[in-house]
Design brief:
Strand order of the largest sheet: 1-2-3
Number of strands: 3
Structural class: mainly alpha
Helix content: 40-55%
Radius of gyration: 22 Å
Order of helices and strands: HHHHHHEHHEEH
Shape: globular
Number of helices: 9
Largest sheet: 3 strands, mixed
Length: 265
């Protein structure tokens, strides 16, 4: 079966969407979703920029940015791409409002090609990491579940805020380990809990501010104990923060969360 998605399907000449638009107007702006190859190139260009920023940040902090670390970053980015693709294909906007213009079936097919590409890339990375260690992927038994599902851009920003002057986390905190805790993706084979420099309640406050939920789920309360250390000791199970007795750091955390929640890839 021909892979091309045609714009005209009557008895007249059949040509792909991209070629049709350019034939009508050579200078017409093309939405990347009109063509799979164009869409892929456009999105990967965005990833390249994110990767260069990641490498630059780690170089400044004299932290390794090898193949494994970059694979973890790429996997997290691809995972976020699946969420973006789902929104492209949805009939509603993130706020629940119904889209006025429905995506055509031709464009949907181009987007679905990109979705298949993203999933194939994720499988390739899983095989690469799994080949290095039987315990490298988060689905394996005995691996602590991650805490949140922030996208790479949000993780990068949060890392900078929490490690600034070593206030919440040491300045040289391993960023790959940090990204796993707050973004998920592939489990680093050398993972170590993050060394939290403030109070246990401040962790709970950060979770609530980032998730914008009234309380911390039971799962997150349990999972956090394997992801953080305070004074080199297990923090134990989290409790919901005391809203009438916030920590001295609450105002800072609130500002950080505001900047994170407005970011996207």
């Amino acid at each position: 079966m021909d892979d091309k998605i045609y714009f005209i399907k009557d008895n007249a000449q059949q040509i792909p969407v991209y070629d049709f638009i350019k034939a009508m107007d050579p200078d017409a702006p093309i939405n990347p979703t009109h063509n799979f190859e164009l869409l892929k190139a456009h999105r990967l260009k965005m990833y390249d920029k994110a990767e260069q920023e990641y490498i630059a940040e780690r170089t400044i902090n004299r932290v390794k940015a090898g193949d494994l670390e970059k694979s973890v970053l790429y996997y997290g980015w691809l995972k976020n791409e699946l969420q973006i693709i789902a929104q492209w294909l949805s009939d509603t906007y993130p706020n629940g409002e119904k889209k006025r213009i429905k995506t055509s079936s031709a464009i949907q097919m181009e987007i679905l090609k990109y979705e298949r590409y993203v999933k194939t890339e994720m499988e390739r990375i899983e095989e690469f990491v799994n080949g290095r260690s039987d315990e490298s992927i988060s689905k394996n038994a005995g691996i602590p579940p991650h805490l949140l599902d922030l996208n790479p851009a949000q993780c990068q920003c949060l890392y900078g805020e929490l490690t600034k002057d070593g206030h919440f986390l040491p300045e040289k905190t391993n960023q790959t380990h940090f990204n796993y805790v707050f973004g998920g993706g592939l489990y680093p084979e050398d993972f170590k809990p993050l060394r939290w420099n403030r109070s246990k309640q401040a962790i709970g406050e950060l979770i609530l501010l980032l998730t914008r939920k009234p309380s911390i789920s039971r799962g997150k309360k349990r999972n956090a104990r394997n992801l953080f250390l305070i004074n080199n000791k297990d923090i134990g199970e989290l409790s919901n923060p005391k809203k009438d007795e916030p920590t001295k750091d609450y105002g800072i955390l609130e500002e950080i969360a505001k900047s994170i929640n407005t970011r996207s890839v």
